[in-house]
């Protein structure tokens, strides 16, 4: 029998891999100083020296996109660690132990989920003030319920399975059952949820920065670049096109990866 | 070794409280194979679960005492149970297809018991797992060690379960319908294996089944249960040859025979 190729996984992982390298590179290296302005290069079109062209201040768009995607990666990863980590833990415990803590936390989850995510993040930002760490905190909190819910439902499915029963018969404690026996079984679901979560974090960060409440200058951010460049969309399309393209590719890559994981 | 005296298990959440096991007494000596036989819902599995401290939250032991090697089983804490399960008493059950964790290797699952109850190092654990796999008749243990449950057949998985249950050298193994889900030839192999393990390790086996023929082929003593009550108990030969109680007689008569005159046979038995 010929094994059907998982094109989603292949395409998704290669695209996500390339974007990952791009983002990680942006954290440590840019060809030009992303802040350096040069009036002579104002609205310069794409060339070998400046592959994505230059913006209204003559800054190198490629360098700015690199740095911006680095920032995006930092924010998205932080959000996942905070929201995904806490959410997964909550889901594990509430799903396994049930009872009134489960009921309480799930109703609290409903409360958070009932708010539009971006609105809730806006509220947090207006209390905490903008900046990338606050964006991480705000998005992380917004992300907790969805992860908790996904993990919880999986734990509930698995906790009554025979293999858990046999682990209990061997004398495993609850924590061991939860982390050694159940967690590896829900890894697949968790991974694809994390990939989707990464996408959502990227988009939310871009959206918030576009609105001016996300990442603040001097940190470059693709959302902010889009909002700054949109006034010059006809004069210098490159400075809008490329940040947008990078966001699209990033989201597409991780979206396909998530589909590929979840078969 | 094991003494259960007049144990009653009650579901207390329903109104009126329902007794699923009533006045059950059993004693076992080291190395003995004792069978519990009865139809579905007769309380066999409940009795077994009470010995492992795994009764559902709403089921309680309301009367009687259970003593295992000087330990009072009725008053164990969670921690106490965790030290008993797998180490002193282990249990295998009906579903070999689903009782193994699908994402952990066979070797890893064989070793789980040793990880929990001993402080053996990695190499010793590996060696012990391989030895045990060989003893329960699994071919090519080195290869099998790294394989996953879905690559094994039902019979092999039940062998893995038995191996994993015996690797910690427990005093008592509870086998809850271990052969019911397997086909007949594999059944015979698993029964032979259980007998052999009983001889080799001296592990006492509490064998639960609804199948009298299986009980007869493996046990020395048998307890017949019906609707939560002990109907009859004693030596397997005696109970099978000369049942004292009506229910046991009917249970024996329900075994299908090779001849076609099943009904006549049954009627004869009843008349006796």
What are the defining features of this structure?
heterodimer; A: 263 residues; mainly alpha; MetI-like fold; elongated; B: alpha/beta; Rossmann fold; 6-stranded mixed sheet; 24% strand; globular
Furnish the topology, listing elements before pairings.
The complex is a heterodimer of chains A (263) and B (272).
Chain A: H1 7-28, H2 61-97, H3 99-114, H4 117-128, H5 132-159, H6 162-169, H7 174-182, H8 187-210, H9 222-229, H10 238-261
Chain B: E1 2-11, E2 18-28, E3 33-37, H1 44-52, E4 59-68, E5 71-72, H2 78-84, E6 89-92, H3 106-117, H4 122-135, H5 141-145, H6 154-166, E7 172-176, H7 184-201, E8 204-209, H8 212-218, E9 221-226, E10 229-235, H9 236-241, H10 246-253, H11 262-271
Parallel strand pairs in B: 3-8, 3-9, 6-7, 7-8
Antiparallel strand pairs in B: 1-2, 1-4, 4-5, 9-10
Helix pairs in contact in B: 3-4, 3-6, 4-6, 6-7, 10-11
Describe the structure.
Chain A is 71% helix and 0% strand. Chain A is mostly helical and 263 residues long. Chain A has a domain of 157 residues: MetI-like fold. The two termini of chain A are 18 Å apart. By secondary structure, chain B is of the alpha/beta class. Chain B is globular, with a radius of gyration of 20 Å. The two termini of chain B are 38 Å apart. Chains A and B meet through helix 6 of A and helix 2, strand 6, helix 3 and helix 6 of B.
């Amino acid at each position: 029998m010929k094994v059907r190729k998982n094109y989603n996984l292949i395409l998704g992982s290669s695209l996500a891999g390339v974007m990952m390298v791009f983002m990680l590179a942006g954290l440590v290296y840019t060809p030009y100083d992303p802040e350096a302005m040069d009036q002579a290069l104002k609205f310069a079109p794409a060339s070998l020296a400046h592959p994505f062209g230059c913006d209204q201040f003559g800054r190198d768009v490629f360098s700015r996109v690199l740095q911006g995607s680095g920032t995006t990666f930092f924010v998205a990863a932080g959000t996942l660690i905070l929201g995904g980590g806490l959410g997964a833990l909550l889901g594990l415990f509430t799903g396994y132990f049930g009872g009134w803590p489960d009921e309480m936390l799930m109703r609290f989850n409903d409360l958070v989920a009932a708010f539009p995510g971006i609105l809730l993040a806006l509220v947090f930002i207006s209390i905490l003030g903008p900046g990338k760490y606050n964006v991480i905190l705000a998005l992380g909190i917004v992300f907790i319920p969805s992860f908790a819910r996904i993990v919880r439902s999986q734990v509930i499915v698995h906790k009554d399975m025979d293999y858990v029963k046999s682990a209990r018969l061997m004398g495993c404690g609850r924590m061991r059952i939860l982390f050694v026996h159940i967690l590896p079984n829900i890894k697949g679901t968790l991974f694809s949820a994390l990939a989707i979560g990464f996408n959502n974090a990227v988009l939310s960060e871009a959206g918030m920065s576009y609105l001016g409440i996300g990442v603040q200058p001097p940190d470059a951010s693709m959302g902010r670049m889009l909002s700054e460049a949109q006034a010059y969309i006809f004069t210098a399309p490159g400075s809008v096109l490329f940040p947008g393209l990078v966001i699209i590719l990033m989201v597409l890559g991780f979206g396909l990866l998530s589909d590929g994981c979840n078969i | 070794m094991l003494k259960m005296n007049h144990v009653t298990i009650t579901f207390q959440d329903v109104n009126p409280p329902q007794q699923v096991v009533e006045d059950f007494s059993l004693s076992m000596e080291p190395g003995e194979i004792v069978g519990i036989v009865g139809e579905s819902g007769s309380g066999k599995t409940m009795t077994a679960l009470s010995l492992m401290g795994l009764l559902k939250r709403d089921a309680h032991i309301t009367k009687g005492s259970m003593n295992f090697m000087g330990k009072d089983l009725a008053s164990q804490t969670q921690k106490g149970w965790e030290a008993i399960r797998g180490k002193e008493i282990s249990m295998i059950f009906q579903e070999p297809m689903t009782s193994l964790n699908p994402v952990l290797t066979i070797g890893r699952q064989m070793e789980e018991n040793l990880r929990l109850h001993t402080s053996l190092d990695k190499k010793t654990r590996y060696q012990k797992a391989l030895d045990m796999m060989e003893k329960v008749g699994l071919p090519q243990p080195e290869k099998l060690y790294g394989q996953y449950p879905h690559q094994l057949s039902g019979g092999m998985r039940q062998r893995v379960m038995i191996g994993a249950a015996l690797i910690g050298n427990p005093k008592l193994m509870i086998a809850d319908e271990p052969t019911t889900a397997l086909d007949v030839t594999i059944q015979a192999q698993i029964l032979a294996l259980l007998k052999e393990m009983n001889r080799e390790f001296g592990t006492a086996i509490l064998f639960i089944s609804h199948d009298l023929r299986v009980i007869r082929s493996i046990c020395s003593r048998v307890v017949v249960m019906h609707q939560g009550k002990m109907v009859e108990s004693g030596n397997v030969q005696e109970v099978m040859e000369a049942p004292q109680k009506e229910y046991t007689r009917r249970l024996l008569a329900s075994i299908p025979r090779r001849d076609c005159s099943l009904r006549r046979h049954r009627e004869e038995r009843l008349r006796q």
